[in-house]
Design a protein that fits this description.
The structure holds two protein chains of two kinds. In chain A, helix 3 (71-76) links the parallel strand 2 (64-67) and strand 3 (83-84). Chain A has helices spanning 2-29, 50-57, 71-76, 91-101, 125-134, 149-152; strands at 47-48, 64-67, 83-84, 110-113, 140-143. The radius of gyration of chain A is 23 Å and the shape is globular. A five-stranded parallel beta sheet of chain A has the order 1-5-4-2-3. Chain A folds into two domains: 1-30; 37-156, 3-Layer(aba) Sandwich (Oxidized Rhodanese, domain 1). Chain A is an alpha/beta fold. In chain A, 41% of the residues lie in helices and 10% in strands. By secondary structure, chain B is of the alpha/beta class. Chain B has helices at 2-26, 78-94, 111-120, 131-136, 165-176; strands spanning 49-51, 57-59, 67-73, 99-105, 126-128, 145-149, 155-160. In chain B, strands 5-4-3-6-7 form a five-stranded mixed beta sheet, covered by helices on one side. In chain B, strands 1-2 form a two-stranded antiparallel sheet. Chain B is globular. Classes of the chains: A alpha/beta, B alpha/beta. The interface between A and B is large, with 43 and 38 residues.
């Protein structure tokens, strides 16, 4: 009888601990999402998701991929084959972007990405997209990185290259 | 046989209880939430020795015995600029209590950083980071990223993105009370 009581009590304590532990861990794993996704003016049709771009990288017709953010972050990790252009949140970066695309056909497929900060806070991606749009480019997409390049690309095991 | 089972069962239950308690204790907020596997909680914080933007040599190991808040940021990063003034306040508040903030700018060039330091009147050292320092800290591929390092020089927390400053403050106070 005593043993039975011990068994039931122990099982109850065990279940309570596991449940509590699970609740804490679950609460801890909730990712912090950017609340400012809607702030950008890039139309949703012009966004490309990371998984979609990975498929394109393996396809026959690869887009021109331009990184329009931080050079330090680019040096640490970037999409293989992508080119560093400059931080298009600055006038120097926008100038650099204009120069890079000056000889391209207007229907060149271009994918822009940054991933320096959460999407709604990125100072570079929107000016870059708007610049190319204003220059008449018709096939421009922006890579949607909700949190940053680390979380939404490198952290998912998608291919990266290093170096400047 | 039945008697043996009666003896073993309470022991097994006790073992289960101890394991569960250990698992639960290991999931304390400071130990877990903010440190993804990539950042390797409780590993020694990689040392560095660089000149800060006021031309003072900064070596991480020289801060042993203090709680260090290591903040990777950049002047073009909106969420970073929201946090930085609070870090400045904490340096004032806890600085005399063996606490030190160190800023690492991931900007491409120093001039805008110096300008921001002066504008915000930052009272803690800021030095220029690069891809090597970023890689040493498990990859700084998005900003801001902040590490909390204990008195023994071990990483105790990693905060990615716009952080809950109240939570970081609580974690700092916990570490400051730990000898």
């Amino acid at each position: 009888m005593k043993f039975r009581f011990l068994q039931i009590t122990s099982a109850a304590i065990l279940l309570a601990i596991l449940a509590l532990s699970g609740t804490v861990m679950q609460a801890q794993q909730v990712p912090t999402k950017s609340s400012a996704v809607a702030d950008t003016t890039i139309p949703s049709a012009a966004l490309v998701q990371p998984a979609e771009l990975v498929r394109m990288l393996h396809g026959s017709e690869k887009p021109l991929i331009l990184q329009v953010g931080s050079h330090v972050l680019y040096a640490e990790a970037h999409i293989p084959g992508s080119e560093y252009v400059g931080a298009t949140g600055t006038s120097a970066g926008l100038q650099s972007l204009r120069e890079r695309v000056s000889s391209l056909r207007k229907d060149q497929f271009i994918v822009l990405y940054c991933g320096c900060c959460p999407w709604g806070h990125c100072p570079n991606i929107r000016p870059a997209y708007e610049q190319l749009h204003a220059l008449g480019f018709t096939q421009v997409k922006a890579l949607y990185l909700a949190d940053n390049f680390g979380t939404d690309w490198a952290g998912k095991g998608y291919p990266v290259a290093k170096g400047r | 046989m039945q008697r043996n089972a009666r003896i073993e069962m309470p022991r097994m239950l006790l073992l289960f209880l101890l394991v569960s308690i250990a698992l639960f204790a290991g999931s304390s907020p400071l130990a877990a939430q903010t440190v993804p596997s990539r950042a390797k909680a409780h590993r020694a914080a990689p040392n560095f020795s660089r000149m800060d933007l006021r031309h003072k040599k900064i070596e991480l190991t020289s801060y042993r015995g203090k709680v260090v808040l290591l903040n990777f940021w950049a002047t073009w990063c909106g969420p970073c600029l929201v946090e930085v003034p609070t870090f400045n306040e904490w340096q004032n508040k806890y600085g005399s209590n063996q606490f030190q903030v160190i800023g690492i700018s991931m900007d491409d060039a120093a001039p805008p950083v110096i300008s921001t330091i002066n504008k915000l009147k930052l009272n803690y050292p800021v030095l220029m980071g690069d891809e090597h320092l970023g890689a040493a800290y498990g990859g700084i591929l998005g900003l801001p990223v902040t590490f909390l390092i204990d008195r023994q020089g071990k990483i105790r927390a990693r905060y990615q993105g716009a952080s809950d400053l109240t939570r970081i403050k609580g974690d700092i106070e916990t570490l400051l009370h730990t000898r």
